[in-house]
Each structure stands twice: as structure tokens, then as C-alpha cells.
Amino acid sequence: MRKDPDMRERGRGRGLTGEESRCLWGDADRAGLGPGRGDVPYIDENGAISVDGLWGFGRAFRNCAPLVRAMSLLPWGGATILRYHSVNDDPGWAGDYVQRSLVVSTDVFDRQVAYLVERHRVVGVPELADAIASGRRVDPRTVAITFDDGYEDNYRCAFPILRKHGATATFYVTTGAISDESILWTVALRHAIRRTESQGLKCGTFGACSIDLSTPRAKEKAIAFITAVVKRSGEREALEIVNEVREACGNSRDTYDSRIMMNPDEIREMHEGGMTIGAHSVTHYNLPSVSTDALVGEVGESKRALEELLGCEVEHFAYPNGRTNRHFDATTAAVVADAGFRSGVTSIAGPVSRRYPVHCLPRLGIVPHDADVRWLAADIQYARLSRPNHSSLREVTASSRSRPTRGGGRDVAGPTGERQEAAS
Ligand SMILES: [Zn+2]
Questions:
Q1: pTM
Q2: If you measure from the C-alpha of residue 215 to the centroid of ligand 1, how many angstroms do you get, rounded to a whole number?
Q3: N or C terminus of the chain: which is more exposed, having fewer CB within 10 Å?
Q4: How far is the CA of 74 from the centre of ligand 1 (A)?
């Protein structure tokens, strides 16, 4: 993709400041999309690198087991929630449907679960949420496994491995995409761009600019940029952008090769098999970007749909999208709490402890180097000990302290007033 000033202007026009627009380009470069960095190694679903600050420093000590063990005893450590997306061996899946770095093979997942069961206490999110809500200290050896989105391989590949090891996990399902009723927008965008034979993308959203699609690397950069723009957009704009891109790429729903998401029977069977099913919104749009009505609908509708499917209460929620953009704030956390969810998990890495409110629990995203369980061990260790200082976490923490009781005339507007802006 060409880094021309017009393009940055377009990003700015979609709610990105000039600085943020520049950061996006920087992220894409640092994330392995720039020259000489190989194949998108550590880029998460937002196009952000999953390694920063303490992480990078900590990994230097990953083989120093006594130091790592000693540090785990420090009082401010917490448990860890792991964030997976897809377990799949199909070479046509990773890259064309889901970002390559979010897919792990069945062999790798098998090894990781075996390690977790042997060395940690694997529990479900409900148990962790109960401990946090009741103010109990969380055992730092505790780990919870979670999956986002609801891909069909969660049932076909991950579920049998979890059962084999006697482990439990929590699956956060995007309810509007169950059985591919509507194609998850992240998949639709990626599939359209990756499969197109067109060398460039021109559509109304990006004006006269032509986005380079001439190489796989250029396509990844285009996906990262357009994804970031969609996440900054309200629900109507987001849908328009995705449809425009699909049309410009000559891609329609009919071109999907196989089923992408789980169906109701599969979700029900996993629930009956001891897994926890949580909600992940209806459409996967970025919740702080949509209108108040849409936000309340996304949270409440996803809960209602899953409760109807499972015949029991659904009490756990995962905010869609990751940490580069603000994917939750005080308003979204309040709406999630008011809808009756007992916990909300984020995509910000950090320890799960009493330090954070139960509606913004940190999670550690699994990255490709975690295929080596020594790296996974090191990442878990540093997630336990880190102190994330993300503005959304600070905001929800402050807001939850000022609102001791649930319900009762909660003010839906966040302290920054962003909600009113998005709704207007
Ligand atoms: Zn997601």
C-alpha cells in the first residue's frame, strides 16, 4: 500500500487523528509487514504487535527458571486468562479467513493444553469471576482458556483436545454469525482482499486513493488499515465500508469454501460437555464506536440469543476487537453489567486479580512463538506480573468505584462523553 498523504487524510476523515493514522502505518511496519521481517509474526487482530515494554524485557529471562519461579511469588501477581481464536490444520484457512497469527495447529494446541493441565490449575472463567467479585485472592497458578468469535474449528478441533486432557474452556460466540447466518465482517474483509486478483482497491470510502493489493504483504497492510478504519466507524458506516470493499474486490458470500462458524448443535454439545459459552456481541463491531442503541442491542441481543439456544443463563461477555483501538470503556462495561453479565474480558494482557473490576478482566493473547511451551510459560509469567496501564482499564476501574451498586438509574454516558458523540 502506498503511504501517500491523501490516504492518511482519509484515515483522519474516518475519525483517526493524523497521529493515529501515522501510528497505524507504524504498527503495520513493526508487525512484520515491513521489509525483511518475514510473515506477519506477532500481529494481533488489530494490527498491533503483541510484544511491548515489560514483555520484551521479560522474555530475555525466559530460560531463567528460578528467577521466574521466585517472581511468581510476588504479592501483586494474578491468574491468567488465555485468549485463543482458531485451532485448525487446513492450510487454506489461516491467512485467507483468519489472520495467520490467530490460528494454532491441533498439535500445538494439544501440547499447550497438556502443559497447562500439568503445570497450572485450569479453571473456567465463571470460577475466576466469582473469586474476583467476592474479593478473594486468586491463586497465581490459575489459568483459564478462552476462545473468541465462535469458529467451527473450536468444536471440531479444540473441543476434542480439551476433553482428552480433562480441561475446560470458555467460548465467546458472535451470535449474528452462528451457522454463517451473516459472515463475520473481519472474515469477509480478509477473504475479499486475500482472494481478489485485482492489483489495487478503489472504493468510495477511500476516495481517489488506490490501495495496493499487488503482493501478499501489500494485502496484509491493506487489511490492517481498513480493519482499523472499520473499528473506528459507527455500525452503519462499518457495514458500508465492508460491503464496498467486498464489492470492489468482486467477492460475494457465495465464494466461501466451507462453513466458517459453529452451528447451534455444536455450541449446545460443547455446553453440555462442560464448556462455558459466553457472548461476544451480535456483529463484532467495535462497541465504543457504535451508537448507544446499537451498543445496548449488541450486548442484550447476544445474551438473549445464546440463552434461548442453551436454555440457561449466559453470564460472561468478551468485548470484540483488540487493544490498538479502544474496544471497551466505562459505558460499554456499564451496559454489559446492566445486561446481567457477571464478567467481561478484554484483549489487554495482564494479571487477573482483585486489582481490576470483574467487567474488564485482562487476557493474554496466544501468539505464534507460544507454539514452544517455554515461550508460553514465559508469557504467562509476565502476564501475571505486569501492570497494564491502559486508559480504558483506568476508566472502568474509576467508574466502578464510583458506582457501588448495579442498576438503579445508571448513567449510560462514559466519563469522557464519547458515548454522546458516537450516538449523535
Ligand atoms: Zn473477536
A1: 0.80
A2: 26
A3: C
A4: 32
d(CA 361, CA 347): 9
Distance 248 CA to ligand 1 centre (A): 25
Distance (angstroms) between ligand 1 centre and the Cα of 71 equals 32
Q: Are 77 and 70 in contact (CB under 8 A)?
A: no
Distance 173 CA to ligand 1 centre (A): 8
Q: Which amino acid is at 265?
A: D
Distance from the alpha carbon of residue 313 to the mean position of ligand 1, in angstroms: 21
CATH fold label, 65-181+260-423: TIM Barrel (3.20.20)
What is the C-alpha to C-alpha distance for residues 13 and 206, in angstroms, rounded to an integer?
9
Domain boundaries, the chain: 5-38+185-255, 65-181+260-423
Per-residue pLDDT of the chain (424 residues; tens, 9 = 90+): 333 444 434 444 444 444 333 333 333 333 333 322 223 333 334 434 344 444 555 555 544 555 555 655 565 678 999 999 999 999 889 999 999 999 999 999 999 999 999 999 999 999 999 998 888 878 888 999 999 999 999 999 999 999 999 999 999 999 999 998 889 999 999 999 998 888 888 887 777 778 899 999 999 999 999 998 999 999 999 999 999 999 888 875 566 778 999 999 999 999 999 999 999 999 999 999 999 999 999 999 999 999 999 999 999 999 998 755 688 888 999 999 999 999 999 998 888 988 888 999 999 999 999 999 989 998 998 888 887 877 888 888 888 776 654 433 333 333 333 322 222 2
d(CA 11, CA 159) in angstroms, rounded, equals: 40
